[in-house]
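Hi there,

I know you've been waiting on this one. I reran it after we fixed the sequence typo, so this is the corrected version. Both the input and the resulting structure follow.
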Amino acid sequence: MHGPASYGDTFGASRPGLVSGWHHGEDIFSPLGAPLLAVADGTVFSVGWNDIGGWRLWLRDRSGNEFYYAHLSAYAPLAVNGKQVRAGDVLGFMGNTGDAEFSPAHVHFEIHPVSLLSLGYDGVVAPY
């Protein structure tokens, strides 16, 4: 993301309402509408809505690592399935959609290394 931000380390914290039961990423807080940047060169995929993540997308880098961005308020024009992007490109904007509706604006961010993709959604590491 671009601009001032803060986060509290909640990776692995209990989340009883989720199927997995634990928090798979970090919540990075910043003003509503702050731009969210691609963390690597790669391909955007799974752009759209789900009830937990709200407006969300995934980015796969050239090595196969995957990055998840959730709770966006809006997408940038580059946020299109199959679109090639460069690190630093704006993908979307800070929000509080999905199950974050009553939370301050933030992005839920996850890192899924290629070596752990066989574990499915649980193949995630702490972003910090």
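Quick highlight: DSSP finds no helices and ten strands in the chain.

Best,
R. S.
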